[in-house]
Design goal:
Elements lengths: L2 H21 L26 E4 L2 E2 L5 E5 L5 E14 L2 E9 L7 E5 L13 E5 L1 H4 L6 E4 L43
Length: 185
């Protein structure tokens, strides 16, 4: 996909999410915030934060217990690792699955923008095989797709904290920024 198509598709997805958050009853935006909600804030689309990568699948899928914001915990499987470079520095992120039958990869991460420009507990990327695989079976890890968990918008939700192994020291100025109406971030 060429850059202009990629950018148009990303901007459409962002507009669609804003419309959902504004208009739908299932929106995580609390009713008292809706009159002030003017859309989510994002970094400008940046193709340098979009990678096509091999997933270095772990031979043994170790269980990782993730703590949630409201004190509960859930086990995930450490499925594989993505390796890439940002700013000339080697980086690695673990990809998780909720079960062996799960198709989707879940990549929670924190970076040097966390707690400043982005949500302090980190952001997420979900990868779906039918949407996020190339013809040569690589995964498209696009930080422009990074999003906040729903617990950012409302205390009614709970979400997993990012495991320490997915804390990056470099900034990732791509994807969703912190929720501007968030009083608890």
């Amino acid at each position: 996909m060429e850059i202009s198509q990629w950018k148009t598709k990303l901007e459409r997805a962002r507009a669609s999410k804003d419309a959902f958050f504004t208009q739908q009853w299932q929106s995580p935006i609390p009713p008292q915030d809706k009159p002030r909600f003017k859309g989510l804030e994002y970094y400008p689309p940046d193709p340098s934060y979009r990678f096509e990568l091999e997933l270095n699948e772990h031979p043994e899928k170790q269980s990782v217990r993730m703590a949630y914001t409201k004190g509960n915990e859930q086990d995930f499987l450490r499925w594989g690792e993505f390796r890439f470079k940002i700013g000339g520095k080697k980086q690695a992120l673990q990809a998780y699955k909720s079960s062996h039958q799960e198709e989707r990869l879940f990549i929670p991460f924190k970076d040097a923008t966390s707690g400043k420009e982005t949500y302090g507990a980190g952001r997420y990327i979900d990868l779906e095989p039918e949407r996020d695989r190339t013809s040569d079976r690589k995964w498209i890890l696009d930080f422009n797709q990074a999003y906040n968990p729903w617990c950012v918008y409302s205390e009614s939700y709970t979400c997993p904290f990012t495991p320490i192994e997915n804390w990056l020291e470099v900034p990732i100025p791509a994807g969703e920024k912190n929720y501007p109406l968030n009083a608890h971030s």
